[in-house]
Amino acid sequence: MPVVLDPDAAAVYKAFQEAGRPPYESGTAAQARAMYLAARAVSNPEPPELESAKPLSIPAPHGAIPARIYTPKTLRKNNGLAPCLVFYHGGGWVIGDLDSHDVVCRKLAHEGELIVISIDYRLAPEHKFPAAVDDAMSAVKWIASNAKELGIDASRLVVGGDSAGGNLAAVTALAARDGDGPKLAGQVLIYPATDFSWSHPSHSEPETSILLTHSVIRWFGNHYLGDADINDWRASPARAKTLAGLPPAYLLTAGADPLRDEGDEYAARLKEAGVPVTYKHFPGQFHGFFTMGKLLQQANVAATDIATWLKSLN
Questions:
Q1: d(CA 135, CA 130)
Q2: 214 assigned to active site
Q3: Do 143 and 59 touch, CB atoms closer than 8 A?
Q4: What is the DSSP letter of 116?
Q5: Which CATH superfamily is domain 7-312 in?
Q6: Residues 96-111: tens digit of each pLDDT
Q7: Among the options 43, 118, 138, 163, which is catalytic?
């Protein structure tokens, strides 16, 4: 069935086409990062007021990982400690940073009444796979080990992210399940990249090549993965031998998204493996809509829905 964009999503896409912005793959990674950050400034809604948003430096084998810790005015404390969402930003492992996803982290902290820690993992092509995975895992392990000092209840630790960040969250959940990390309370996978084969039908449908185009996916993938094995579950979590034993998942997909089918399949496989799954599909939205709350009301609906799910965990 053809994808029909919601009216506001269609208007955003039309404006994008009329603006004539060059595609990311036509320039350098640095130029793409600048364009992406500029776009977020236009599409982000006003952020909610928090108690604080402070820089955090996380020690790691390669050197410190920059991060940002968000504390809302209201926290769901248990014995003085609060739940925490460790968030990995999207951007194809090439673009995006703490600032590009600042507003969504603030919204999730405020509406979920929990601490959010956003991780500024190393980007490709300067740092190819598995650098981002190593940073994602190092960060969550350090946060768990220092939970009390951060005001966090380590038993209520959740990982999450959008797109490439959803990939890192899924991979981190798998690693933690297998003993390379803390026991996690949940995983939030927002239109996650789960399979580098790019073989699902949504990767070839013309109507899914919106903003996240089929060509830019390959540009991102080549920058990040290079010659690495796509069957490595740290790149393609869908290639893991089993998804059994993973923490509860919230998984979101969009209709006009090349990653739609692999997200759908991952949600189905999680359910088949006995993992509790809350699955939400936004048929009239395109990939990346979650960070466009100023322009797309469904982005705010999704954020509130995720916050509600986070509250339901504990």
A1: 9
A2: no
A3: no
A4: E
A5: Alpha/Beta hydrolase fold, catalytic domain (3.40.50.1820)
A6: 999 999 999 999 999 9
A7: 163
